């Protein structure tokens, strides 16, 4: 089992971004959706990005934005990965994938089928909980069984939706995703990260990995008589 990547989303402050990296996060998400309480100006993000280690995967989050707007704001912010929510088509996602790492967000609403992930052939897929008004950061868990079923249809699956230090171990065991995404589960207020909660979340992910690896190793040994 490869290490589970950790994405911290909804970051709005430079000191929170630095803490995420220092504590072991692999990906940091900045929300460019103006209606979000975690919205941050792309020009501000550029200053934060320039101060982060080059290895950090910085993600710009968009909702129902057209490709021209995505390109413009991503260039301004200095991000090379875009996460797309809403009604963005598979064609647009795959077109953008020629220039960016693209994460297509899908929610496990009543119409969701795991096979839907197969349309985004050149993208990573993030599985999130459904909310009629909000796009991420809802604190609600998604359908883990549906997320697990979607694994076979995507090259890289990110599990999101209501994760925190208390349930992320169970989520990893149930879904075995390539990455986990957390937002409200490590906050003291929308857009304000709780550094202690960040530490506990990342520690819980690594503990879950070790437990999974130990279990897999034991199972592979079999039983001798």
Report on the architecture of this protein.
- This protein is α/β, with parallel strands linked by helices and 225 residues long.
- The protein contains seven helices and ten strands.
- The strands form two sheets. It has an eight-stranded parallel β-barrel with strand order 1-2-3-4-5-6-7-8, surrounded by five helices.
- Helix 1 (14-23) packs parallel to helix 7 (195-221) and helix 6 packs parallel to helix 7.
- It starts with a strand and ends with a helix.
- The protein has one domain: Alpha-Beta Barrel (TIM Barrel).
- The model has no long low-confidence stretch (mean pLDDT 91).
- The longest helix is centred in the C-terminal third of the chain and has 27 residues, at 195-221.
- It is globular, with a radius of gyration of 17 Å.
- The protein has helices at 14-23, 42-50, 67-77, 90-96, 144-150, 168-175, 195-221; strands spanning 5-8, 27-31, 57-63, 81-85, 101-107, 124-128, 157-159, 179-182, 187-189, 192-193.
């Amino acid at each position: 089992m490869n290490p589970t990547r950790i994405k911290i989303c909804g970051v709005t402050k430079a000191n929170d971004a630095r803490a995420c990296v220092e504590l072991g996060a692999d990906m940091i998400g900045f929300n460019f959706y103006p209606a979000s309480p975690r919205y941050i100006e792309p020009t501000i993000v550029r200053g934060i990005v320039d101060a982060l280690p080059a290895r950090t995967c910085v993600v710009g989050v968009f909702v129902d934005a057209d490709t021209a707007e995505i390109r413009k704001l991503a260039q301004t912010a200095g991000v090379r990965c875009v996460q797309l929510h809403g009604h963005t088509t598979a064609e647009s996602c795959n077109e953008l994938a020629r220039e960016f790492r693209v994460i297509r967000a899908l929610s496990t609403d009543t119409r969701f089928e795991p096979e839907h992930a197969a349309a985004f052939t050149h993208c990573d897929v993030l599985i999130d909980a459904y909310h009629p008004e909000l796009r991420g950061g809802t604190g609600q868990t998604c359908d883990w069984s549906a997320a697990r079923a979607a694994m076979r249809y995507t090259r890289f699956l990110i599990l999101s939706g209501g994760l925190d230090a208390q349930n992320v171990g169970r989520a990893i065991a149930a879904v075995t995703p390539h990455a986990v995404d957390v937002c409200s589960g490590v906050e003291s207020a929308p857009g304000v990260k709780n550094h202690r909660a960040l530490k506990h979340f990342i520690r819980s992910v690594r503990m879950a990995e070790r437990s999974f690896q130990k279990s897999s190793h034991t199972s592979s040994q079999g039983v001798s008589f």
